[in-house]
Amino acid sequence: MSAILFLKERWLWAKCFLPVAFSHKPLCGRFEHDVIRLKGFYFCRSCVFLYAGVFVFGLVLWRAPWVLAEWWQPMSGILLAVAGLSFPLWNVRLNRLLRDLLRFLLGGCLAFAVALFVRGETVAAGVFGLVLLAMRIGYTPFHKRLNSSACDGCEELEREHLCSGFARKARCMKEYEDGLLQKGNF
Fold this sequence. Notes:
Elements: H1 3-21, E1 35-38, E2 41-44, H2 45-63, H3 65-85, H4 88-91, H5 96-119, H6 122-148, H7 164-181
Antiparallel strand pairs: 1-2
Helix pairs in contact: 1-7, 2-3, 2-5, 3-5, 3-6, 5-6
């Protein structure tokens, strides 16, 4: 594929899918509390808070390195407790604002682990990283189970057509396919 065709295809993909690419959830009323809509773009609320935490904690640790130098041990305990509370077994019982705070602080955990490694605290960073990795591995089956039952009880499940939660994404896919198939494009 030539570079021009590749760039045209990527542009078409971005035009069609970027509004919904970061939502991760069905775009229906059942999930409206899990999605942030901003000028026609949909974002996963948990991811927004996670990346905000990475950014804010990273900025603080970069601009005020004494925080890490003097407080890394108590911060490690606090942030590991936050990581534990973020586990879906407990997290789903919390209200949305508290889950947002936990996700933000979990982003801080990631920034903190990187900062420990950069500072030369490789053992502490390794332990921190392994705990976060173990949590991620343990989190995945619980998360899949929660997602598989998220639509239970929805009246649209019994219908033969695509549910309203995925209709917007399906329209984006159709627009992309139509653009690819138009004569002269690809």
